[in-house]
Amino acid sequence: MRLLKQFLIIIAFSFAGEILHALLPLPVPASIYGIVLLFVALERKWVKVTDIDKSCAFLIEIMPIMFIPAAVGLLKSWDAVKDSIAEYAAVTVISTLTVMYAAGAVAQAIIRRHKTKQDNNTAEPSTENK
């Protein structure tokens, strides 16, 4: 039952992303809206990590299975793809490196921000009177 509740929380954020995608005229996929909403909810502690941890672990475990339909589709359209394989490979490598760099930069910025907050919270104000 706990896993179902956790999965429903994730589905709710996904659905909210679908609603935002329908309402906002921006070229942003609904899944991105949903993940950003979930991130904000986790950051603001509206949703605790323990509220979704087991279902997230399960979804990450089965992630490779989700690529099978895309791989089969690629194999079925091989005749159309094989002439441009170098371009596809270049785009794949460049976009992968770009995403890795962006994710690393964002993660480092968040870590620095949290560290700065912790340092500011632990620093004691000087009470010396001269």
Account of the protein in words:
- The chain has helices at residues 2-23, 30-43, 53-61, 63-66, 68-76, 78-81, 85-122.
- By secondary structure, it is mostly helical.
- It starts with a helix and ends in an 8-residue tail after the last helix.
- The mean pLDDT is 90.
For the record, give the distance between the C-alpha atoms at the N and C termini, rounded to a whole number.
63 Å
Strand content: under 5%
Secondary-structure class: mainly alpha
Average pLDDT figure:
90
| H/E element sequence | HHHHHHH
What are the low-pLDDT stretches, counting only 5+ consecutive residues below 50? none
Helix content: over 70%
- State the major sheet: none
- The overall strand count is 0
Shape: extended
Rounded to the nearest angstrom, the radius of gyration is 21 Å
- Enumerate how many helices there are, as a single number: 7
Short key terms for the protein model shown above:
7 helices, 130 residues, mainly alpha, 77% helix, extended, 0% strand, single chain
What is this entry, summarized?
By secondary structure, the protein is mainly alpha-helical. Helices cover 77% and strands 0% of the residues.
Topology:
Layout (H helix, E strand, L loop, with lengths): L1 H22 L6 H14 L9 H9 L1 H4 L1 H9 L1 H4 L3 H38 L8
Helix pairs in contact: 1-2, 1-3
